[in-house]
Please model this.
Amino acid sequence: MKTWICFFLSLSCFAQFNYSNFDFFQNFYTKSEIQERLKNYLQKDDGVSKFYELSNESFKLLDENKNEIYQLLLAQDTFDIPFEKKRAPLRVALDPGHLGGLYSRLEGRHFHQLPTIENNLRDDLVVKEGEVNLYTALALKKKLEAIGVEVFMTRSEIGVSSFGVTFEQWLENHFEEYVQKQIKDLSEEEKKEKKLQYYLLNGQDKFDIFSTEDLYHRAEVVNQYKPDVAISLHYNSCGVKLADNRYIPSKDNFTMVFTGGSFEGAYMDRESHRYNLMRLLLTEDHAISVKLAKAVVKGFVKNLKVPIVDPSLHIAPYLKSFSIKQDEGVYARSLAFVREVEAPAILGEPTCADNPFEGLELDSLVVNEDSARIQAVAQSYFEGIVEAFGL
Model:
């Protein structure tokens, strides 16, 4: 295990997919250290191993055709290298997940609960996740700025994306640009056919394209900001969705936090996956992410009185299928934001928004950034940041 004088080393200031960024780590890690990291948080399945070769002398990253992309020479003995990196104040990027507002149904994060005894027989109880994500981020931003932390947010209005536009504005001004990028390498005849197919897509399909573009753009603008740490704020769901888009409220409620990692072989033909596997393998981004995640989970349990998720629950199968456990309630998973952001990054799921108690606390008719539940979640993130970064 390397001992660092610096608090962290991140690649957020480097050019995207420039593998020479990793030259600092030549002759730095031993084979056993590389194997340990691959096993503990990076390699979810055997398919990943098709994209690298590991010997006593080197680690070679390969593309889908087995061509060498980058070779890292390995050390033969463990040793410590002092490295110092200082920057004040701390720079934090906050990403309030989803959009909320009129788009909450389109993005599948509109939790309209059926009336039950637990939710006071309310027939109008709705939680719009994109809105409570934003309120939580705004509340956290105030707390952080009050102690001198610099804060960047990927979006700051309900229904407005990280592009600074709504879905309708994107359709009007940017959809054609998106289509042209998708068809640029086709023949003229193929372009006409494919373009027509895009324009004949229904509204939901176009919104899904917009959401995916927005998601990756969030990571892009965060990387441009060059934060010391990035947090994507979400709320979970575990109820049963009915045909009319109503939810049978879930009596389950639990908390968890994700970090980057747990790569799958099926996606390693994508350059961003290969590059970020290398980044998380060599930098301390993952170690710092886990440190922060553990502190945030502790805050969720203390302030929200919600238990840590039980990975055996049938309502959270993704913890076994796609994730690698790092600690209680902390899981490495190849989610876009925590994978693509080139800095320590976590994605928080403090509670289940479709739980009847949470529904009453996060009711879209009355919730705002000063609501008690929003403040408690924001305080949990705040305490985690303070603990992890020694503020």
Notes: The CA atoms of residues 183 and 190 lie 8 Å apart.
